[in-house]
Amino acid sequence: MFASLRTASRPLVRRPYLARSLQTASVPPTSSASTSQPPPKSSKPRKPREKATSTPALSTQEAQAEQTVKYPYHIGRSWRGGEPVYEDWVRGGRARTLIRLVQGDQKKLLQDLQTTLFAPLGIDETRLDGRVRLPGHIDLRGHWRREVVFWMRERGL
User: What architecture does CATH give domain 74-155?
Assistant: First the structure.
């Protein structure tokens, strides 16, 4: 039915850019599968594989440095891979720092924060007002995000 509408002088494809893209996308005809041959092998000689060498024995100081410290708590990472330490302003204009994704002994983590981070800075427990709010959440008074993140990275948490 539509074959009668085509004329001999009229090209089959009206858009030349479409015709070019179809020409480049077409696969050239190949011979039958029975006559196909595998690609020729490379004439370059292969290098022999090197055997894995054993690591030299470590000294006792290096072995102690490589051992990681095991803490009774673990602080996970946020979904983007950062430390889950957040600053917030609560009603009344009070600044708070929230540490999330804490697993394990949360009270021990709070105690370690108070003794190793805030005590050398001269901040006592009453001023810090650290609390375990929810399971996995520690709440501190004040904006301490930079200090807490540095402390976490320093200890490898």
Answer: 2-Layer Sandwich (3.30)
